[in-house]
Design goal:
7 strands; about 30% helix
Length: about 150
């Protein structure tokens, strides 16, 4: 008896070239802020370029794996598009993301966000992220209220 398993969520492919991925992230940041240049966004752009050096861009049509560390640029206010701190992803249903930051759970609508995920290297960061995710899931099972952004 054979069983077929269908995965309904789309996941982004793995990074094949780290340097090209860095260039892609820098280009995306430049493109985002170029449309709405002012002093505040110029400072936000410089901060984002510096901070997102170890991150990869994730298109909104893709789901993010649970346990990944997420940061995002909130584009809802075009005059001041800040890079947000984010947290560890608990759940991504394709339209919104639930992530854990410190001791609170945040539900984020993907509509006005440019998403970036921390690059994970084998045997370097996976152990800590996995342990943090296990703790988060246990806490998440008992939590009932979310902070919505």
């Amino acid at each position: 008896m054979e069983k077929n398993i269908k995965i309904y969520q789309k996941y982004q492919s793995h990074i094949t070239n780290i340097e090209s991925e860095k260039q892609k992230v820098h280009q995306i940041i430049q493109n985002i802020y170029q449309l709405y240049l002012n002093e505040s966004n110029e400072n936000n752009k410089d901060y984002a370029v510096q901070s997102l050096d170890e991150y990869k861009y994730v298109n909104n049509k893709f789901s993010i794996n649970s346990g990944s560390y997420l940061r995002y640029i909130d584009t809802s206010n075009h005059k001041d598009m800040k890079l947000k701190l984010g947290g560890f992803v608990i759940n991504d249903n394709g339209y919104s993301i639930v992530y854990k930051n410190d001791n609170r759970f945040v539900k984020l609508n993907k509509k006005h966000c440019i998403l970036f995920v921390k690059k994970m290297y084998k045997n370097v960061q996976t152990g800590n992220a996995y342990e943090h995710l296990r703790t988060s899931i246990r806490i998440h099972e008992h939590a009932t209220n979310y902070v919505t952004m």
